[in-house]
Amino acid sequence: xxHLAIFSSGFINKIFTGRKTYDGRFSKIRCMPFxxxxxxxxxxxxxxxxxxxxxxxxxxxxxxxxLDRKRLxxxxxxxxxxxxLTKKFWSMKKFSKxxxxxxxxxxxxxxxxxxxxxxxxxxxxxxxxxSQQQIQLF
Length: 138
Description:
The structure is a single chain. This protein is an alpha+beta fold. It has one domain (2-137): Hypothetical protein (Archaeosine Trna-guanine Transglycosylase, Chain: A, domain 4, Roll). Helices cover 22% and strands 41% of the residues. The protein is built from three helices and eight strands, in the order βαβββααββββ. The protein has helices at residues 9-16, 69-83, 87-93; strands spanning 2-7, 22-27, 42-47, 52-64, 98-114, 116-117, 124-127, 136-137. The strands form two sheets. The chain has a six-stranded mixed sheet. A hairpin with a 4-residue loop joins strand 3 (42-47) and strand 4 (52-64). The radius of gyration is 14 Å and the shape is globular.
């Protein structure tokens, strides 16, 4: 399946330099990409408010649900360096009930960024499969 993930430019840079090797999607409710991504899926990386600048292949994928703060903290502590989280980001996500961890493999930067018109505010869109959404390129 193909996915479109929205990242801040800082996180994208850390992916391309190899510093960020896992993506974590935290939420209080069950939402994309929870239980909707598998190892081998292609994830397009879009800068928040900008173009699609590259992609990666999903490696190991893990889903956690019904999390309490203690359990979530144990998981985050284990992956902290791979996620390259900031204390500010963690303070906003520490009450999450769902977590999707995605290993980032083979990150590739496009030579020419791709412009996309994305109309919703979601940080993740699956393109294809049961939860398909339309995006308009160019």
